[in-house]
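step 3/5: co-fold with NAP
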Amino acid sequence: MIDAIGRPQSVLVLGGSSEIAQAIVAGLVPARCKTVVLAGRPSERLDAAAAAALAAGATTAEVVAYDTTDIAGTPAVIDAAFDTFGDIDIVVAAAGALGDQAALEADPLAAADLITTNFTGLAAGLLAVAGRMRRQGHGRIVVISSVAGDRARKANYIYGSTKSGLDAFAQGLGDSLVGSGVGVTIVRPGFVKGRMTEGMDAAPFSTTPDAVASDVIGAIASGANVVYSPGILRWVFAVMKLLPRAIWRRMPA
Ligand SMILES: NC(=O)c1ccc[n+]([C@@H]2O[C@H](COP(=O)([O-])OP(=O)(O)OC[C@H]3O[C@@H](n4cnc5c(N)ncnc54)[C@H](OP(=O)(O)O)[C@@H]3O)[C@@H](O)[C@H]2O)c1
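step 4/5: write tokens
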């Protein structure tokens, strides 16, 4: 339950081993968020994330098996989390994969799998979360989108389209929840140096999981609907979206 001065006391992460999500949890726990539920594919990384939350001061840090591509199993995972841990103040939807564009173009089934991972499956989870949060009458859903969804780029349009879909879904979800006590914050990071981008050349205005987490925690506190991370990308992409297609399609990989 959110405390008297508005600080969340529980968080459920969909994609619990995500570096960005772990940084968000590391920021929330010292501010009295003592219950941490990490839903993800079972792995040492997921277990280590739970151990890190406990070490940071969480009183409960549990892992829950969750795979975004198991759509049929998703509502039960979400219901079990809310039934077991009580009110959940914050849900962070962080699961996602970048994929290799050339490989995905050559393998339509792999591309469909990525789309399910990043969008279809996650959307099903978010609807289940929204239903539970509506019933409890409060909470905030944080959806990690990407600037890649602001305008699909030739070099990564498959990933970009998943983020466009997820982002549009989250915008509509947020509007549908107005008046319910539940809010949605959409996070649009740029290039984040970490596991997902390992070995890639950093894009301009690249950032870190910690810096994104700091922006997310600020957005949770203020109840912002949309946050770019870093903030300057809001203006960069406002311009990018206006570029003629003939120029945009020449954008480097
Ligand atoms: N890194 C960037 O530059 C960047 C920029 C903009 C937006 N984002 C978005 O930020 C979010 C977090 O990314 P990150 O940077 O923290 O990278 P990350 O550490 O690689 O996190 C990705 C997370 O997604 C999980 N995941 C992948 N497929 C899944 C599936 N089928 N079911 C459940 N979980 C699954 C991974 O779990 P496993 O450990 O099981 O693989 C991992 O927890 C992603 O949605 C990403 O698209 C990242």
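step 5/5: annotate
The chain has a mean pLDDT of 96.
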